Amino acid sequence: MNEWKLVQKDSSEALARLHFFSVKKRHARGEIEARITVKEFATAKTSDMQFYATADLELNQKALRFQPCGWSETLVGALGECMRNLRKFDYEAFEDPSALPSDCGR
User: Whole-model pTM?
Assistant: First the structure.
């Protein structure tokens, strides 16, 4: 057991260590960087939910927005599931550059 997990006194605190990753995703107008954050929970509610990964961008914006994510009992499992979901859908770039959210101009 990692010592950092001992700092949590109650499971309702949901203490988690963060792991950060970056990946490029190609789309029709070029490529965009996706940042993936994996949370490693000190106390998992079930054995397969110790790691949760989520990407910082939405895909399939013109139909039904989808934010890639993944759960697993291992860091690589959650990251892998999030990457699979990132590959499933297209990033649909905004047509009008002035319509970009303020944090998307990376």
Answer: 0.78
Residue for token digits 């996706």? 34
CA distance 105 to 23: 16
Q: How far apart are CA 47 and CA 69, in angstroms?
A: 18
Give the long-range contacts of residues 12-21, CB within 8 A, separation 24 or more.
Answer: 14/41, 14/42, 14/43, 15/41, 15/42, 15/43, 16/40, 16/41, 16/42, 17/42, 19/75, 19/79, 21/79
Distance of CA 58 to the CA centre of its chain: 10
Percent of the chain scoring above 70 in pLDDT:
84
Question: Both ends of the chain: CA-CA distance in Å?
Answer: 38
